[in-house]
Amino acid sequence: GSDKFGPIWFATGGLLLNTLGYLFLLSVTTHSTFGGIIPSLILVGVGTGMFQPPNNSFVMSSVSKDQIGIVNGLNALIRNLGMIMGASLSVLILEKLQAVILSGIANPTQIQVDSSFVEAFHIVMAFVAGISICAAIISFSRKNYISLKGGLQE
After folding, report:
1. Helices and strands, number each (H, E), in the chain
2. Helix axes 7-24, 110-149, angle to 10 degrees
3. DSSP summary character for residue 26
4. For residue 72, what are the contacts with CB-CB under 8 A and spacing of at least 6?
């Protein structure tokens, strides 16, 4: 796949699929079923699977052979920190937003609690989709970097 078409197309396409999955999650309601959410999660999973290998290939091919071990370890560290921080911050923001939405209600009903959760979830998913589209733009802009270095195929 990415060897034939170049890593930029797969990495950027994966990020765009992630963005689409996050945007589809904006349609979640308090009445959504698991079956209605699964397609969005599949898009995010496939997008991540499309992004990671070519991105790792790009990173590894941009360093000299004697630096590959260090860069590989650093790449794994940054990827893991990104996942941990992303998940933690998303939940933190979601909880804070839900608290703000419910702040004027002394004894919220279950419907209000559920609705506030979905509203906060939508805000977080919109923010994550924005980050993902920015990452896709940055990923695609690597085309110029590659052609300047005379390295990987586009």
Report:
1. 5, 0
2. 170
3. G
4. 60
